[in-house]
Amino acid sequence: MSDLLDNKEAATKAVVDFMTKKAKTKTKFYFKDFYKIFPDDKPRVIKKVINLMVQDEVLEYWSSGSTTMYGLKGSGIQHSSEGEE
Q: Is beta strand 59-63 parallel, antiparallel or unpaired with respect to 68-72?
């Protein structure tokens, strides 16, 4: 396990920084996109950290019905507002 995942604040900052940097071209990310942030960690550990961020309302789920993606809370078009103008 990397030192980054031992420190929840550092992991949160790394994910938010990564997503903010890509925000001009992309607001939703697949789970596998987070592998780039934590290359030394196993998917199960990464999933735990990402799920904690969803519980803390830093991130939120977005689902197309067949695919689940993650986005920063309040950025981009969210599932709850689709179809609204």
A: antiparallel
